[in-house]
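Hi P.,

Sorry for the delay on this. The queue was packed all week, but I finally got your sequence through. Input first:
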Amino acid sequence: MIVEYVTAVPHPRSEGAGPAGPGRLSLAVALLSGALGAAVALLSTRQQWSSGTATVAGGAFPLTAKGSDVTGVPAALAIVGLAALVAVFAVRRAGRFAVAGLLALSGAGIIAAAMLGASDSSALDEQAAKASGDASATVAALSHTAWPYVAAVGGALILLAGLLALRYGRSWPAMSGRYERNGAPRASRRAKAVDPERPEEMWKALDRGEDPTGA
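Then the structure:
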């Protein structure tokens, strides 16, 4: 009597499905939130953040200030954060951790600058001084829009991308290292042996810049 034993072979993807899942999800969320956060922060700085009036000889003169007039920090940090988001995939190990930290700090800086700008009146005070001709003049009837808080939301998205990069960045893919700085593939570094009895191979080796003699 012959007894056959059947051994169950696990599916090859079953072992890597567990750890790869969070890595792929975190990568997608970080890319989306980082890019969206930078776009939102840049867009919000071009909108009106505050308004008021200045007292001049002819009466009240309306004044408005965009986000870029109030502070240039959110726009600058949004560009830094976007560059750091791209650079995360160009570095590895300690370099990736440092760039991820820069990404998170960029988001935190945008939040802080936007919240401070939500109640800032210095930009309008300068306009009021110019309009009235009085260096000590200040803006009256000061009001603010919701755009500073929109910029803060953009900073929060960039901060989220940075935190995800710090937590899961080690499992994210990096740019291919196939090509070195000289632009030559690693596989072509080692010249193949050329058969001296086949002249066509010697000519091909010369065309590739290799020494067909092997010296």
